[in-house]
Amino acid sequence: MAFQVVGMNACTFVNVSANSYTGAASATVNFQDLNTGSLFSTILNYSGGSGQINVLVSNLPAPNGVFEVTLMESGLEVARQPLILHCDIDCCLSKLTNELIDCACDCPKCSSALAKAQKVYLLLVSAQSTVQLTSTPVGSTNSGYYKDILDKYNKAKSICDNSCGCNC
């Protein structure tokens, strides 16, 4: 379990679980929004060397986007992991899919909706794959991965801006 950060329950909360790296009784978990630089911090208490908390997404600097999540013990960064909260893009994909279902023919309108959905989906899956590559202890994380994840998320979001689907 070392350090895991996972968005849960349709972007309602983020589950953070970790084992202590230094034997500390608690850690600070920082969520930095990579688009704005805004920061939210919370405390993770360890019991028997491990701990788990659920952080409400409403407490984070933004409800969607790319975050760098760091685990700090005694003022030292011991682990880092990217997090993508992409319910906004999921809603866009849902709307585009519904448009495709409603298409009764193989017309240009349907072709453009399909092309748009494919681009958004591929960008999101690629960003998520990069997240999996960077889930490592501090010292082996390449900051270029974070830029890659952010660029792909932002591109998918920009393609979706005219196609948002859920509660827009």
Q: Mind telling me the C-alpha Rg?
A: 18 Å
SSE order: EEEEEEEHHEH
Q: Based on CA inertia axes, which overall geometry fits?
A: elongated
CATH uppermost class of the largest domain = Mainly Beta
Number of helices: 3
- Could you say which structural class the secondary elements and strand pairing correspond to? alpha+beta
CATH third-tier fold name of the largest domain: Immunoglobulin-like
In terms of per-residue confidence, which ranges show pLDDT below 50 for 5 or more consecutive residues? none
Distance between the termini: 37 Å
CATH superfamily of the largest domain: Immunoglobulins
Task: Note the beta-strand portion.
Answer: 25-35%
Q: How many separate domains?
A: 2
Helix content: 25-40%
Written description of the protein model:
- This protein is α+β, with helices and mostly antiparallel strands and 168 residues long.
- It folds into 2 domains: 83 residues, Immunoglobulins (Immunoglobulin-like, Sandwich); 74 residues.
- The protein has 3 helices and 8 strands.
- The longest helix has 26 residues.
- It is elongated.
- The model has no long low-confidence stretch (mean pLDDT 87).
Give the structure's gist in a few sentences.
The protein is α+β, with helices and mostly antiparallel strands and 168 residues long. It is 36% helix and 33% strand. It folds into 2 domains: 83 residues, Immunoglobulin-like; 74 residues.
